[in-house]
Amino acid sequence: MLFKIISGIIAVGLAVAFYSIPALKLLEIPMLIVVAIGVALSIFEFVETLREED
Predict the structure, then answer these.
(1) What's the pLDDT score for residue 33?
(2) DSSP characters for 1-54?
């Protein structure tokens, strides 16, 4: 369980860092919305993965 938490946090953090660089450089509203939705979905999937039993 601890491995799932640590690896999930690292994965979500890397995804946020990867997606935020072009979004913040371009500063276009549609791009920011798409990136925010993608980050929210990845966080939701991470939480759902933690809730399921091994």
Answers:
(1) 94
(2) -HHHHHHHHHHHHHHHHHHHHHHHHH--HHHHHHHHHHHHHHHHHHHHHHHS--
